[in-house]
Every structure is written in C-alpha cells, then in structure tokens.
C-alpha cells in the first residue's frame, strides 16, 4: 500500500510537470494520457506507431499476441528476442519514456505464452484455492522478472474481481482468486509486491466488479445492476 501511495504521488507530480511545461503542446499532453495498441512484430521509421509516438508524444503502448480483427497470431509477440527488440525500438523514439503494457495474469490469460518461449504460470483460482502467499509471490515473481527482461513495465493484472456469480469471463476462466474479499486482497497485494520488486507497475481490475456479471464484456455491454454486490469493492478499499 505504501508503494502504491508513493507511486500515485509520483504520477500526480509528473503529470503536473508535463501539463505545466509550455514547450509541450496540448496535443502532446493529450497524447501522454493514451496507451494504444498497434500491429507489428517489428517496427521502422515508416510504421504508423512510430509516427504517432513522435507526433503525439503517446503515453504508452500495449502488446498483444493475437489480432482479433484479422484473426491472426502475428500481432506483437513471436519470441523473447523479438519482443525485447520491439520494445527497445519503441522506447528509442519516444520523447518521454513509454509505458509498455501487457495482460499477463497467469493461467489462461497471458499474452506471453510457452510457445513464444515464456514459462507457464498458475491461474489466480489455483493460487487462491491453495491459499499459500509464498506460492503466489513465487508465481508473480516469475511473471515480473520476465517482463523486466523484455522492458515491459506495466502489467494489467492482478484481477481483484470476486468469483461471486461464476462470471463466464472471470470465474469461468479461473481469473479470480476467490469469492472472499480478504483472500483476494491478500493474494492481489502479494502479486503486486512481487512486481514492485522489479519496478513493474500494476493495474488492478475490473472496477467496480466483473465477478458477478453473467455475460462477457468483450462481446457487448455487460449490465451488473441486478447482480453486483457492494462487497465487490472491498479489495479496492483494502
């Protein structure tokens, strides 16, 4: 919690410095608020993402292994060497260091897969069921250390949704640590602690709670009006 507070203060101060800088245009200030996806296993000076990083001073990029629109596995990830080279090239043209983000939760939800040369890690459900914080830390350490080697500095994980309604996109994919908020809080905090040791930022998700949903928000609007419970906010409070 102390690290999170310090990091938030740093972000606020850094944002204030950027916004107050008269040399940075309004367009560039808006660009700093954006983390965008792009296509390409490699990039060069003619690539749209390189053009946009230079022109709009983008805040960051997010990497995917699968292109949903094109139904292709050739999006941004092929191998450890390729990803590291890609990240280095992106950072080399950025006026302000980029957030390089990815979804690497463990279990089924991981962009860096074994076929790409990355180790498998356990799902949140398995870790929550075992309820061994040392195991959770070791698991998260594997994730964080590999992200660090690649230059990826932002992990959109862990999931802090409660497995209340066996949501098809949360419980159904074993992405929740537990239906009990204290278990979720303990394991999520441990996951974050392991990432902090490697300088990796985390984003906890999905506020205000996706665990009680009955549909998948990737395929349409998910309304939790009749299923959401206030207890789903507990991991965020803690």
Describe the 3D structure.
This protein has 238 residues and is of the alpha/beta class. The chain folds into two domains: 24-102, no CATH class; 119-238, Glycoside hydrolase, family 3, N-terminal domain (TIM Barrel, Alpha-Beta Barrel), CATH 3.20.20. The protein has helices spanning 2-20, 26-31, 48-56, 80-92, 124-130, 133-150, 181-196, 234-237; strands at 35-36, 60-62, 99-102, 104-106, 109-110, 154-155, 201-202. The strands form two sheets. The protein has a five-stranded parallel β-sheet, with helices on one face. A hairpin with a 2-residue loop joins strand 4 (104-106) and strand 5 (109-110). The longest helix has 19 residues, at 2-20.
Question: Which short descriptors sum up this protein?
Answer:
single chain; 238 residues; alpha/beta; TIM Barrel; two-stranded antiparallel ribbon; 7 strands; 8% strand; globular
- Characterize the main sheet: 5 strands, parallel
Number of strands: 7
The CATH architecture classification of the largest domain is: Alpha-Beta Barrel
Helical element count? 8
The helix/strand series, from N terminus to C terminus, equals HHEHEHEEEHHEHEH
Instruction: Output the CATH topology of the largest domain.
Output: TIM Barrel
Radius of gyration: 18 Å
Query: Which of globular, elongated, flat, extended, rod-shaped describes the shape?
Result: globular
- For CATH, the homologous superfamily of the largest domain is named as Glycoside hydrolase, family 3, N-terminal domain
Give the neighbour order of strands across the main sheet: 1-2-3-6-7
Structural class: alpha/beta
End-to-end gap:
9 Å
Could you report the average pLDDT, rounded to the nearest whole number?
A: 89
Helix content: 25-40%
- Which consecutive residue ranges, at least 5 long each, have pLDDT under 50? 1-10
- Domains, number: 2
């Amino acid at each position: 919690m102390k690290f999170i507070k310090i990091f938030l203060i740093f972000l606020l101060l850094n944002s204030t410095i950027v916004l107050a800088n008269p040399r940075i245009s309004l367009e560039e200030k808006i660009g700093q608020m954006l983390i965008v996806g792009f296509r390409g296993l490699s990039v060069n000076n003619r690539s749209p993402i390189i053009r946009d990083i230079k022109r709009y001073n983008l805040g960051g990029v997010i990497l995917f292994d699968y292109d949903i629109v094109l139904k292709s596995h050739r999006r941004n990830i092929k191998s450890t060497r390729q990803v590291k080279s890609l990240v280095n090239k992106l950072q080399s043209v950025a006026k302000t260091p980029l957030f390089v983000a990815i979804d690497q939760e463990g279990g089924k939800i991981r962009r860096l897969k074994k076929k790409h040369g990355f180790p498998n890690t356990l799902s949140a459900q398995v870790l929550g069921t075992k309820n061994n914080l040392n195991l959770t830390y070791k698991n998260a350490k594997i994730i964080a250390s590999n992200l660090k080697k690649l230059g990826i500095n932002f992990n959109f994980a862990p999931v802090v949704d409660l497995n209340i309604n066996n949501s098809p996109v949360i419980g159904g994919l074993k992405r929740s640590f537990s239906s009990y908020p204290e278990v979720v809080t303990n394991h999520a905090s441990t996951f974050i602690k392991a990432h902090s040791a490697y300088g990796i930022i985390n984003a906890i998700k999905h506020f205000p709670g996706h665990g009680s949903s009955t549909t998948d928000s990737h395929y349409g609007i998910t309304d939790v009006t009749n299923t959401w419970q206030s207890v789903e906010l507990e991991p965020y409070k803690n």
